[in-house]
Specification:
Strands 5, 6, 7 and 9 form a four-stranded mixed sheet that branches. This protein has a three-stranded antiparallel sheet with strand order 1-2-3, with no helix packed on it. Strands 4-8 form a two-stranded parallel ribbon. The chain contains 15 helices and nine strands. The protein is of the alpha/beta class. A hairpin with a 2-residue loop joins strand 1 and strand 2. It is flat.
Length: 430
């Protein structure tokens, strides 16, 4: 019996081992610094820096970068963001300094002790009245700002400087104070709407990893710092060089020139990746002429920021968005629909340009197809003396044979081809 019990005890499985304990220490890496965390037996948490071999200069630089640049910079943004930020800082610096001078001039022009009735009129006409009118007028132009955000952003700063300039000059005509200052606020109201409306498409062009909020937050940080610096310089100027009207008339235009130059360079650095008439024409011209696909970064310094509606010969001199009854006759409409029955565009080749009208629900791909047909047709007409109808048919067939590879390479370069921003141009629906 004892022998049997000993055999049973010998065959009995060993008791299960206790589950492994979770580690009570770990290493975290953040901002190029590794830190060792560990829970002590009493439950407290200790932390030691494991590896921070950075020099003091590098620590300061990286600290600045973490506060004013998006996480993961420069890999988290598209090309041109640094240059954009540099001129954005200069733009806000000069604008803030100029605003101090305009405020000082307004106080001089209005008088330091206005009556309650005058104060009410100033508040309504300048702050609430004329500026709101400017905002309402400019808000109707939102579609055009989507199409050409760079052009409208520059126009916004020109309008802002114009309004500020009127405020600076208001002491020269105190009897027209309300009219001059009110007109200045009207221009500044339009400028505020245009600047805010174009901010999103500009930041979206830099957002490489969906980090739009981070880009916006860091951009506002840069703006705030340099606005404060600009205000400080403006106060110093107002109390010294610009204490007289003559000084303001010298320094004011200089600050305005720096301001506008900064925003122009700022916009030139932005690689906008949406299709509008100008960018589409440039992409198509490069493809038809040289067989290459240009990226948004390739085109940014070639964009015409002042006259974006210019025609490009190598792209077929296409003019998009005219009203249908002005661009086509009934016979031309039937002819275009017969040639391109499945397409969402109409083409009418004239002596000076080619009109293209898009259907209401046409996308960027539809606009690209029509633009390629026009560009191929123009190229074929140059090299031969064939009639326009046969050229359009041959151009359409050539477009169909090259479009798939053209489109896939465009998308791989970062272009958004799902929509076409024609700036509130006319479209049609059957």
């Amino acid at each position: 019996m004892n022998l049997l019990n000993s055999i049973k005890m010998h065959n009995k499985p060993p008791p299960p081992s206790p589950p492994p304990e979770f580690p009570v220490y770990w290493v975290e890496t953040c901002d190029s610094v590794s830190r060792h965390f560990e829970f002590q037996p009493d439950g407290s948490l200790s932390m030691n820096v494991v590896d921070d071999s950075r020099s003091k200069v590098r620590r300061v630089v990286e600290s600045f970068q973490n506060k004013f640049f998006p996480s993961g910079y420069p890999y988290s943004v598209n090309e041109g963001y640094l240059r954009y930020s540099q001129f954005r800082a200069l733009q806000h610096f000069s604008s803030a300094a100029l605003s101090v001078l305009s405020t000082q001039s307004l106080l001089f022009a209005a008088g330091l002790r206005p009556t309650p009735a005058q104060a009410t009129a100033v508040s309504w006409v300048l702050k609430d009245g004329m500026q709101h009118v400017g905002k309402l007028i400019c808000s109707n132009l939102g579609a055009r700002m989507d199409s050409e955000p760079k052009c409208w952003r520059i126009l916004a700063d020109v309008l802002y400087d114009l309004g500020t300039g009127l405020e600076v000059l208001s002491p020269l005509c105190p009897h027209l104070f309300l009219e001059v200052a009110g007109l200045g606020n009207f221009a500044k109201g339009m400028a505020v709407v245009a600047a805010r409306a174009t901010r999103l498409p500009i930041y979206s062009s830099f957002a490489k990893e969906g980090n739009l909020s981070d880009l916006f937050a860091k951009g506002e940080a840069i703006s705030t710092v340099f606005n404060v610096l600009g205000l400080g310089v403006g106060i110093q100027l107002a109390s010294t060089v610009c204490s007289s009207m003559q000084g303001k008339m010298v320094v004011g235009p200089l600050l305005s020139i720096v301001h506008v130059y900064s925003v122009v360079e700022e916009m030139r650095a932005v690689p906008v990746n949406t299709l509008n008439p100008q960018r589409t024409a440039m992409v198509v011209a490069d493809f038809v002429k040289a067989g290459k696909i240009s990226s948004p970064a390739d085109l940014r310094y070639r964009e015409d920021l002042l006259f974006p509606g210019r025609l490009i010969e190598d792209a077929g001199n296409v003019k998009v968005g005219r009203t249908l009854h002005k661009a086509f006759t009934p016979s031309k409409i039937r002819e275009s629909k017969q040639k391109f029955p499945e397409e969402k565009f109409l083409l009418n080749r004239g002596n000076k340009w080619t009109d293209m009208i898009l259907e209401q629900n046409a996308s960027g791909e539809d606009a690209l197809r029509g633009w390629l047909v026009a560009a191929y047709a123009a190229s074929m007409e140059k090299s031969s003396s064939r009639s326009t109808p046969s050229v359009l048919q041959d151009a359409y067939e050539k477009m169909n044979s090259t479009f798939d590879s053209f489109l896939s390479e465009l998308q791989s370069k970062g272009w958004h081809t799902d929509r076409f921003l024609d700036g509130a141009g006319s479209r049609f629906a059957w």
